[in-house]
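Morning. Coffee machine broken again, so started the prediction first thing and wrote up yesterday's gels while waiting. Chain of 297 residues, entered below exactly as on the submission form.
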Amino acid sequence: MCKEVDMQKNDLVILNRMDYSSGIAVGNWNGSTPGIIKALSPHRHDHYTCMLIESGKLEVVFDFKHLTMPAGTLFISPPGQIHQILSTFGATGYYLSFESRHINKSAYTSLDNLLDDTMLITLSNHEYEWFRTILDSIIKLQDLNDSVCSQVEEPLLSAAIEQAILCYERSTFIIKENLSLRSVSISKEFKNLVKSHFRTLKRPYEYAEKLNITVGHLSDTVKKVTGLSASELIQKEVMSEAQRLLYYTEVSIKEISYHLGYQDTKYFIRLFSKKAGFSPSEYRKKYTKKLDHIQDQ
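Came back before lunch.
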């Protein structure tokens, strides 16, 4: 699957990196698979992760959401999201880990536009069998370990991702607006920049400068595409990371504040309290107890 490495200097949670010699990892898993056992501890990936539940049920926390997924469920989680398996309940299935460079532009664009959080899909019997066939085919190609076979893997992977997106859109009744390609491109570039720089850049004009557009154009475009203002998206990224660190680590609030780019811890506490409705310490106490209760069940 992927290999575990030490935390990056700017990361406070274990980061599992993809093995860059392959870029695509696929196989079958059960409760005793080493990768599943490692996933019993909170961690995040630097790549996309997809799992198909074949039997039993899988209980997982994605960031702060506790989900129980029965057989016939498919999920795709984005890089950077913290997750932890709580219980496998006799579950078995398929795993598929991949870097974005291994899917075509159409699949990547669709995935990037949709996937801010985990994509969770309840499959029909027909859809389930289709994904099983694709994943079995990719496994067989990797077993052959042939350079020609590797050229076939990527189209199959792209097809699987695009089909997953279609299933997700149908199940959630997503209606696509008539947006220009330029607007979508600006919004995507902005979101990617925010994910990379939210610790150091907190103001929309700083991102507008990087994109070589006016801050007004950035704000109008992002609002039209995402429904949120540029400032709201920056704050959302900061808050999500703060909540992850409070939920999954024991580092001090002062250290979290510094990690997120706030030298004034009191200001960070006021900002967090305003957005979350709890102080950081209250949030940690409340949700840590909730996680402990879930794990004890």
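The chain has a mean pLDDT of 85. Going to sketch it on the whiteboard this afternoon.
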